[in-house]
Amino acid sequence: MDTLTPNDMSAIVEADRAHVWHHLLPHKPLETNDPRIIVEGKGMRVWDQRGKEHLDAVSGGVWTVNVGYGRTEIADAVRDQLVKMNYFAQSAGSIPGARFAERLTEKMPGLTRLYYANSGSEANEKAFKMVRQISHRHHGGRKSKILYRDRDYHGTTIACLSAGGQQERNAQYGPYTPGFVEVPHCLEYRKADQGWGDVEDYGRRAADAIEEVILREGPDTVGALCLEPITAGGGVIVPPEGYWARVQEICETYDILLHIDEVVCGVGRTGTWFGYQHYGVKPDFVTMAKGVASGYAAISCCATSERVFEMFKDAPDDPMHYFRDISTFGGCTAGPAAALANMDIIEREDLLANCTAMGDYMLDGLHALADRHRVIGQARGKGLFLGAELVADRDTREPAAEKKVQAVVADCMEQGVIIGATNRSVPGHNNTLCFSPALIAKKDDIDAILSAVDGALGRVFT
Ligand code: PLP
């Protein structure tokens, strides 16, 4: 633990209470409860200001620290890079920037270019801007609309919220940016609410619903479709069989660019480098952030195909022909330096294979819990990206009350295990427990997480 004295620590807690505006937290409880300060981390575990140890089942709270805490080799790589060359605007290149772009694009056949930025939202904004500029340059201003899916999330800026299918995240931040249009979600467990009857081929039906929106809007108005490969904060929604193949077909039929938001799934989370690689799709844009450097540095990327890149260089006599965009801190070399070291670790320790094996083990464990706790309506996920949807009634599938879901999270926290839950996202459906342990997780860690959830469910839903 840190060498701070108890007095130092209470001063820090008071400074935090007085001056820090915490993300995602209501203010009132912090007047009476101490804010939580995370002081140190090692492997799968973190320690708070009281010295309490927590097993982190959500990789830094939001699917981020894929290779675990305390990786000195990433810190060393960042330090070495910073003392040599910390920053220059990305109009010039950098050594780690070039190396990482080359290594990463090798993992994503068909994509060749990397645009560097700092956050998932920003990477998505880059893709949106590219789509808009392609509309102006190649379609006379048509094909500017961007479709997004109910329950998906693409970030926190106003344009990203306008492309966001989680009404509770968006509420009170309007007016929104025009030109974004919603398509239905693809959560088969909730298909009864979608009014399509008891369809057999649900994957195809849910994708056909995208085509219906395209036809309603007019195909020549739609430029791109932006989807999460597996929806994260909207409920850990693994797309149904046949969905992605049909999505690809629809994009090709109507000449619509496919933008896959891999901010959560990217760089190993589901057992492949990218989530879309489970489904054989060929995206035009792939955006990524959280796992790219496991939170050791702020970095996000918008990867594109050469076809997209070419669309910006066909009229050199036009002074507006190129992508006139900059992200100041996209030139920080700490990001790609950390990302390269992060990738070394994933390869050397064979973490994709571990992620697949431990993900299967944990999903089996969640199914076993569902046999004992009727409150688990469905457990789902891929790799170490898992969720358990809680219901008040298994037959009607009425969602469990949000307060009770949060009580399970709080109970686990008491036990020293940090889990997550969908929160303030989809009205009435904030009822999915979320798990995303680091890709280094071992069976013992998974057993400890499952055991904490088992105990919490038993106590909360007596
Ligand atoms: N896209 C997805 C799928 C996300 O889950 C998130 C954040 O959770 C974002 C984009 C936004 O990323 P950031 O918070 O880095 O802007």
From TrEMBL:
Keywords: Aminotransferase, Pyridoxal phosphate, Pyruvate, Transferase
Gene3D superfamilies: Aspartate Aminotransferase, domain 1 (3.90.1150.10), Type I PLP-dependent aspartate aminotransferase-like (Major domain) (3.40.640.10)
Coiled coil feature spans: none
Family designation: Belongs to the class-III pyridoxal-phosphate-dependent aminotransferase family.
Name the record gives this protein: Taurine--pyruvate aminotransferase
Cofactor(s) named in the record: pyridoxal 5'-phosphate
Gene: tpa_2
GO molecular function, one term: pyridoxal phosphate binding
SUPFAM superfamilies per UniProt: PLP-dependent transferases
